[in-house]
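Recap from last week: sequence in, structure out.
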Amino acid sequence: MRTMVGTNTTRRRFLLVGLAAGLPLIAACASSAATPTAQTARASPSSAAPATEAATQGTPTPATRLPATAPAATPKATVQPSSPAPVTLTFWSWVQTWVDIQKPAFQSYSAKADSRVKDVEITVIPWGSYWTKLTAAIPAGQGPDFYQFHNQQHTDFISAGLLAPYPREIIDKVKDWDGVQQGSFTYIPTQKIYYLPMGTMVSALYVNSEIWDAAGLKDSDLPKTWDDLIPIAKELTKTNPRGEILQAGFGFNGNGWLIWNDMLYQQGQWQYDETGKKVLVDTPASRTALEYLLNLNNRYKVNSASFLKAGEGFGTKKIALTYSWLFATSYFQTNYKDLKFRVVPLPTFSGKLLPAYGRNNYEVMFAVNPKAPAEHIDQVWPLVDWFYQQGDVMAALAASDNVIPANPSLKQDKRVQSMPGANALIPAIPYSIFPGEFPPALQSLYARYIDQSYLQGQASLDATIKAIQEQGDHILGQKSYWLIERKYTHAAAFKSG
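Predicted structure tokens:
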């Protein structure tokens, strides 16, 4: 089995740079080419970048825009091998750490007596050029037989006919998995499913254990509400005689908009109106969240807009408590090996999981190229079907990325349970909301006006809300996005609007 590895930065390594900078991160598409430029290499753990995946810390750029054409006709999907001759399949990915787990699984499948897959040739392409190369290669008949997918590309790839719908036989075997059970993967216009989840990622509170223990605090002191957080953060804050922060009690620079986003859901408010064409920003819940964040800096002084970014400050032990998505666990473990920390659930306004814990995102696996040779598609589906049923492999993938497995039977797997915070966060998953694809332009807008302007003292609350509301509505008006937040299981607990 060959592995082709691109020479440029992978998205995982790009995310790590973004975390250190403390900027909101969303995936970018860049440069165009029909086929990937790559060099032959062996996939090995030593070449893997640390696993870091989620919507947090980085520099967002707009996603590739594709023509809204009807999906191309695809060969009839089947999970039964039909080609008598063994084939060599091709697979593309940007995630080296996942490839290191997927590769031996593919080899095991090829070794099965009834397998018609002789080999799987893997090409690893940097995230920065991955999607552009796919969108050029697939229509030209030069794309892979199947490839690693990300739900950020949902609408564009389906409308351009770049995804083959999954066979019902595969879907029926995972119908009780997180996200599938709620209908989060069903594309309404076609009533088909084009990819499936591996696990769920949410945000959490990261606690420096050394600072916490030195202050004589116990697990029972962990904040349940945002009001609880304030006195604890004040106790953990250290300043010099001039009042300048030396140790932030709760440092969140670069992540303000992400906290604000979770806080909307925690107060029972949606992100979008029922039409999906307007953002819900000029609201009491939005004002409450933004005022709270600014007060942490200006009134309670547990953080400063001029202090270190969240990732760097926490990693260097200058922040006692911080906010991040679960991918940060691998980042801190890899880059700050002497850092001792724990991962606990976020505070909420009510101290309870209802109305909601916050936003989530699903890490997904394979997409199948509908323009691949029919005899290859016939062999991809049985491989994909088999892969999703390999509990050891799926648990290893989830643990490598610090996500909660979508398969309920794997939540107690020892590898999953060994993840920091897993036991405490698993109960929160049913109360987390998947909004659908999160438009990169919106995320960039939120980061620019909340973190880079409002929390820096450069714009008033009213001016910030007015700008985000107007520009957010404009972004949503440009095209239709896959927005499904109202599929949330506990939607009845939310306010109308």
